[in-house]
Amino acid sequence: MNKLGIKRRVTTTFAVLVVAGSGVLAATPAHATTPEATASVSWPALPKGKVVSRITLNIREDPTTNSPSLGGLRPGAIVALDCKVRGQNVNGNNLWYLLADGAPGYVAARYVQNLSYVPYCED
Q1: Domain count of the chain?
Q2: Does a structural domain hold residue 56?
Q3: Which of 2, 8, 32, 79 is deepest in the core (most CB within 10 A)?
């Protein structure tokens, strides 16, 4: 996956979260016309993961340890995950998670225990 595709996906995800959080966008099924019918509409929960490294886990710009660090996550932190990609092999695991909730960057899946199913990123 190229950098432009990733940045576009992160920007799009962030824009959707901002618009959805502002109350401007309402998720209403086409057949729902009453407040009672729309009350049951819910968004699927984002996949979550728990940091299982013993030290601060680096957040990387790209799915490789050679990529610049964008910050870190503390051991035991629960984080929202957008999707997974194949990247550099880290201790036998070549999967990396793209963070969600507007947080840019990737973390090595080797050090994150996924708490629910995480889909692959689309190209």
Answers
A1: 1
A2: yes
A3: 79
CA distance 111 to 38: 39
Distance CA 31, CA 79 (A): 35
| Sheet strand arrangement including 106-108 | 69-73, 57-60, 106-108, 93-99, 78-90, 48-51, 112-114
Query: What is the reported pTM?
Result: 0.65
pLDDT, tens only, 46-102: 899 999 999 999 999 999 999 999 999 999 999 999 999 999 999 999 999 999 988
* pLDDT single digits (tens) 22-36: 343 333 344 444 455
Where residue 110 sits, what CATH number does that domain have?
Answer: 2.30.30.40
**Residue ranges making up the domain that contains 110:** 3-114
> Is position 64 within any domain?
yes
Contact 121, 82 (CB under 8 A): yes
